[in-house]
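Next comes a concrete protein, fold included:
___
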Amino acid sequence: MWAIAVVLIVTALIIIIEVPSLLRKQLRKELWMFSILLLIGTGLSIAQSLQVDIPNPLDLLTIVYKPINDVVKGVLK
């Protein structure tokens, strides 16, 4: 429970520090992207603090490229 609180406090501090400067400079697209990435990062951090099994992105790449690798190995042998 404390880990979730710490993640939310750090997220709030990041918002307090970064958002006013983005609003002052009228960087709307950057603010949207910042918000989306911060939301994803916060969600993943909370999930990790709850010890949820988060899949590795490299596993997806392995699934996608393994058939291509097998074809190339077959051609080169």
Q: What stands out?
A: Residues 18 and 57 are 28 Å apart (CA to CA). The chain has a mean pLDDT of 95.
